[in-house]
Amino acid sequence: MFQPTLTMNTVLACVDAHGHPSAVCDGATWAAQHLHAPLNFLQVIDESEAHTGETRFSDLTGYDPGTTRTQALDAMPGSHIIGGQSHSQQLLEGVRARALHLGHTMVELSLRQGKLTDALLDLSNETRLLVMGLHSHHLDSPWRQDAHHLEQALHAVQQPLLVVTRSHFTPPSAFALAYHGGPESLQLVDAVAKCELLHGLPCHLVHAGARNADIQAEMTQAAQRLADAGVSTHIVIESGDVEQVMARHLTIQQLPLLVMSAFTHTGWRQKLLGTTTSTLLRRTPTSVLVLR
Q: Of 66, 100, 224, 235, which is the most exposed, with the fewest CB atoms less than 10 Å away?
């Protein structure tokens, strides 16, 4: 399991105009406050991708278009200038203002040119948690497939990843853990027990599949490991398709966070990193925390 070093203390949030920056900002700010960590908002400009459409800033509470620009942002080549101010600069200043409005004062901005993976690797030594959003062309519309940047991030870094999947972020008061069974799931349970971000939150340990003595015993063992770490746990076993079972439970119980493992090669990760529209992320009304 990934263990942060003392220098890996920053929550790194990747923001862009099409990835629900307000929700990413809110999720990253919640995480940074919970971890008592500095927050770094990162935007990466890929020159190979043409800029399309106008950036929306109406929901960036506290954004002041007259904010003084930093020298680092002013010096950034290749940015798209509108009215003397770049889209990238407006976006970064907007999320910083929103984070300050939410009460987090340790906020930095990073603007890079090039590839996302290069920027993530450059900042990996100081990153404790990575936060990213999904892309859509309309707020709260069914998601179009754009998980390539998530796949790149998961392959590039070893840090846990918080994926904000909707146009708003709800701080979790409890979470669901997708439990598939076997050694990888027990590793995930141990990672949850040690995850400071989840401390104090009750856990719904959910398995989609047939109930039998083996899975019941294994989940009882998993629940005991969590209980030993001070995590209150509720075991749920339901037969059916994993997407439908999880989406139904998350909706009925109003759980805003799903926790899964980056190591699993089951349908959950295949859908997260799939090459077609992600049924999982479209149907699951939650943010997703991917642990190592």
A: 66
